[in-house]
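Students often ask why we bother encoding 3D structure as a string. The short answer is that it lets us treat folding as translation between two languages. Here is a chain of 119 residues written in the first language.
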Amino acid sequence: VQLVESGGGLVQPGGSLRLSCVASGFTFRNSDMSWYRQAPGKERERVATITSENSNTNYADSVKGRFTISRDNSKNTVYLQMNNLNSEDTAVYYCKARVSRNFMFYYYWGQGTQVTVSS
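And here it is in the second language, the structure alphabet:
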């Protein structure tokens, strides 16, 4: 299993970024996918999840209305569109996959991509 994030960088407050996570090594279309983030000195927190079935989504309260998670099963890719960014969004963003095998769930993480919001 491999998850490769990209799209992070430095952005000014109020700006936008789109993160991508390309997955391989498992059946992507059958897997729930999530984005998490971890700011310096803080615990890792879930940002958004998109389910395998019906692509239902849910978000942390702190990003509702600003972030949008989506997936393209033909490209084995999950996205995180981030708008109206502020300094509190500065963190390393991680992609996480929930993979079902043999009636059990396994969880895999990407290596992370840094997002810095600063003027």
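Translate back mentally: The chain has a mean pLDDT of 96. Keep this in mind for the problem set.
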